[in-house]
Amino acid sequence: MSRVAFFYATFPRPTETFVRRELRALEETGLQPDLYSIWKGAAKWEGKTIFRFSLYRLWSLFFWIPYWAWKKPRVFKDILIALWNRPCPNFQNWNETFLALGFALVEAHRIKEKDYTLFHGVWATMPATAAFALSKLTDVPFSMGAHAYDVFRKGGDWILGLKFESASFIRTSSLSTAQRIKDLGVHEDKVKLIRRGLAYWPNREGFELVNNERLEMLSVGRLVEKKGYLHQLIIASQLNDLGIPFRLRIVGSGPLRKELYMERDRLGLTERVEFLGSLKQKSIRECYITSDVFLFTGVVARNGDRDGIPNVIPEAMSAGCLILSSCFAGASEAFIEDVSGFSLNPFESQEWVHLLSEFWETPKSFEKIRRSAIRYSKDAFNITRTANSISEAVIEGTQR
Predict the structure, then answer these.
(1) Cα–Cα distance measured from residue 319 to residue 148, given in angstroms and rounded to the nearest whole number
(2) Which CATH architecture has domain 4-197+382-398?
(3) Averaged over 273-279, what is the pLDDT?
């Protein structure tokens, strides 16, 4: 099996559960990549050493910049031209780009000695920039992940085009994002659509309402514009006006927390809508199994950011929740329309309210679609299939 290095911005992150699931499954295929965390992170994960970058080593750039400029002048020229010809989209990306480049310049000599056959940047920003720069300095091929956040935001990444051009392959997880990458000029042979996989399957004992006295609704995600939580509050308000008893639990934290709290209270939903903040995965699983309905009201944010297939939708499907999802971006790719979930426009709240009202009155009539969601999630988001596809892409990528 090829020796491969995976690069992360920070590893492990509590919110990136799918990343850890994939690594566990990859071991079953025989692929055990070395893990590099560029910005902080843990020293070990499940007994495996994580190569954490020490920022104090950036002082050695006084030596490594002239060394690599002399050894690889064309590399310096190409990167500098790419940076010069396009303005940096935002301050965060500026920091990420130069930290990744600094990491690569400082660590390239030591990493080259490990005889890797491929570098893989798990995300299209800092990790992919590091993998790209290391590839140019050491002549080892690299690959990268690219998801909705990476390609739809206004401006995108500073040198995204240069990375796309040089990558052996680009892994993404939704059709909408794959199409966007192709629209940016990447040949379809390079784009690998590999769904994120699930490894935990809850056991829902029955499909009657969890609580006969009210409808239990759930939403999970960061409190940011693209999640469309203001639309959820409008839906909740209209349900409340109809006299339908319900509880809506929202799991997650983020910059819109204060605004959403104020809007909830203004709409008179203090007793109906609960903001639970960030929870550990075990607690989130309990929320799925104790909920009847899962809501996802994602929209396209003003900066162009949007979701591909949010991990929370397949997770809620696997727990037997009734799925009501936004029709925007890639969210509805997670299920079969009207068979294992419903795709709705968040700006047309009456459609959501109508379905929820019907479900409250006749929950038994939705049992078939909920069972279908469980079956579909087990097939479409099989972690073993995901790991095998990644492993095959890595083997192919080392040969490009």
Answers:
(1) 25
(2) 3-Layer(aba) Sandwich (3.40)
(3) 97
Confidence (pLDDT) at 92: 87
Coil, helix or strand at residue 238: helix
Q: Where do the structural domains in the chain lie, given as residue ranges?
A: 4-197+382-398, 215-380
CB neighbour list of residue 158: distance below 8 Å, 6 or more residues apart: 82, 83, 86, 88, 89, 93, 94, 97
Note the pLDDT tens digit of each residue in 329-351.
788 999 999 999 999 999 999 99
> Across residues 215-221, what is the average pLDDT?
98
Q: Which two tokens stand for residue 374?
A: 């469980």
Same-fold call for 4-197+382-398 versus 215-380: yes
Residue with tokens 């020490």, as numbered in its chain: 54
Question: Residue 344's beta-bridge partner residues?
Answer: 326
Q: How much is the pLDDT for 154?
A: 67
Compute the distance between CA of residue 316 and CA of residue 58 in angstroms, rounded to an integer: 43
Strand order in the sheet with 191-193: 44-45, 48-52, 34-37, 4-8, 118-121, 142-145, 170-172, 191-193
Q: Does domain 215-380 have CATH number 3.40.50.2000?
A: yes
Nearest Cα residue to 274 out of 348, 216, 225, 209:
216
The closest of 35, 33, 27 to 9, measured between CA atoms, is 35
Residue 391, amino acid: S
- Compute the distance between CA of residue 341 and CA of residue 313 in angstroms, rounded to an integer: 10
Which of helix, strand or coil describes residue 185? coil
Range name among 34-43, 242-251, 303-312 with the lowest pLDDT average: 303-312
Cβ proximity of 141 and 398 under 8 Å: yes
Over residues 287-306, the mean pLDDT reads: 94
Amino acid at 193: L
**How high is the pLDDT of residue 400?**
65
Residue 266 CA to residue 343 CA, distance in Å, equals 28
